[in-house]
C-alpha cells in the first residue's frame, strides 16, 4: 500500500491564529516555530496546507478528500488561491476516472472542492463517494449538500457509512466533534486524520480548541483518541492542514520529515 500526499494548496489562514485557536499562547507559538516551521507564515500567522491523500494498493485507488477546488470555488475565494489537485493526480500517473473510491473525512468547503466538474457532474466518474450518515444528517438539504453532494447522489455514486468499520483494506473511524460525521481513515502506512486536528500544536495540546469546531468537547475527545491510536500503532497521523505528519506524542525528534517519507508530490 502506498500513500501519496497531494498538496492542493498552501495559504495563510484569513484570521489571526489566536482568533482561530482561542487558547493560543506564546508557548504554542514557540513550539510551532521550533517544530513545525512549515505551518508558520512570514508574519507569524498560521500557514495551512490543504492535503488530499491518494491511497493505492492492489485493491485500487482511493482519494481521501478533494481539497479546495478550482479558481472560483468557495474555498479558493476564501483563501485567495486555487487548488491544483488534477495536476498532482496526473503527475502521480492517476486519471480522475482511475479513482475507485473518494472518502470525504467531512463535508467542508476545503475538503470537497474538487467533488464535481465545472458542469456539475461527479469529477471522479467511476468512484463511490463515501461519507458518514451522521454528516449527511447534519447537512440535511442545505447549501453544502446542494453544492458538494447532490450531484454525486443524483449520479448514484454516494454511499453513507454508519459509524466506524472496514472499507476494503482501509478502516474508517468515526471521529465527531469538528463536524458531527467527521471520520478518519486508517491505512497500513498512516492515519489520515482530516480535521481531527487542524493546527499541529493540537497534537501536543489536544485540548487546544479550534473556534469552528462544531462540538469542542467531543472534538477534544476524538483528538485524544486518534493521537492515542497513533502512539499505540506507531502510525504517523497525517491530517489535512499540518505541513507534515505528526506522531502520537508529537515529540520534536519524531517529526523529522515524515511528510517526504510519505511521498509528497
Ligand atoms: Zn473542516
Ligand atoms: Zn479543513
Question: Can you describe this structure?
Answer:
This protein is of the alpha/beta class and 265 residues long. The chain has a single domain (2-261), classed as Ribonuclease Z/Hydroxyacylglutathione hydrolase-like (Metallo-beta-lactamase, Chain A, 4-Layer Sandwich), CATH 3.60.15.10. Helix content is 27%, strand content 22%. The chain contains nine helices and eleven strands. The chain has helices spanning 17-20, 26-35, 74-79, 85-91, 133-139, 143-154, 201-204, 216-233, 258-261; strands at 2-12, 47-57, 60-64, 101-103, 128-132, 158-161, 165-167, 170-174, 183-186, 191-194, 237-239. The strands form two sheets. It has a six-stranded mixed sheet with strand order 1-2-3-4-5-6. Strands 7-8-9-10-11 form a five-stranded mixed sheet, with helices on one face. A hairpin with a 2-residue loop joins strand 7 (165-167) and strand 8 (170-174). The longest helix has 18 residues, at 216-233. The two termini are 16 Å apart. The structure holds zinc ion (ZN) (2 copies). Residues 108, 110-111, 195, 240-241 line the site of one zinc ion.
Amino acid at each position: 500500500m502506498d500513500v501519496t500526499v497531494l498538496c492542493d494548496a498552501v495559504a495563510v489562514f484569513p484570521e489571526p491564529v489566536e482568533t482561530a485557536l482561542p487558547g493560543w499562547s506564546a508557548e504554542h507559538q514557540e513550539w510551532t516555530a521550533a517544530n513545525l516551521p512549515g505551518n508558520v507564515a512570514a508574519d507569524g500567522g498560521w500557514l495551512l496546507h490543504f492535503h488530499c491523500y491518494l491511497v493505492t494498493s492492489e485493491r485500487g485507488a482511493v482519494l481521501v478528500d478533494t481539497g479546495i477546488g478550482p479558481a472560483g470555488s468557495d474555498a479558493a475565494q476564501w483563501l485567495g488561491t486555487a487548488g491544483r489537485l488534477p495536476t498532482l493526480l496526473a503527475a502521480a500517473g492517476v486519471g480522475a476516472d482511475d479513482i475507485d473510491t473518494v472518502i470525504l473525512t467531512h463535508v467542508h468547503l476545503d475538503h470537497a472542492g474538487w467533488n464535481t466538474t465545472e458542469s456539475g457532474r461527479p469529477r471522479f466518474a467511476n468512484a463511490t463517494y463515501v461519507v458518514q450518515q451522521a454528516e449527511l444528517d447534519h447537512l440535511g438539504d442545505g447549501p453544502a449538500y446542494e453544492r458538494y453532494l447532490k450531484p454525486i447522489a443524483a449520479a448514484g455514486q454516494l454511499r453513507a457509512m454508519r459509524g466506524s468499520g472496514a472499507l476494503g483494506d482501509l478502516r474508517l473511524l468515526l471521529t465527531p466533534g469538528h463536524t458531527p460525521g467527521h471520520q478518519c481513515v486508517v491505512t497500513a502506512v498512516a492515519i489520515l486524520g482530516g480535521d481531527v486536528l487542524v493546527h499541529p500544536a493540537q497534537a501536543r495540546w489536544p485540548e487546544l480548541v479550534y473556534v469552528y469546531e462544531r462540538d469542542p468537547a467531543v472534538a477534544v475527545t476524538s483528538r485524544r483518541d486518534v493521537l492515542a491510536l497513533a502512539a499505540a500503532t506507531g502510525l504517523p497521523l497525517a491530517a489535512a492542514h499540518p505541513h507534515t505528519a505528526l506522531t502520537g506524542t508529537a515529540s520534536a525528534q519524531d517529526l523529522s520529515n515524515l511528510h517526504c517519507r510519505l511521498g509528497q508530490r
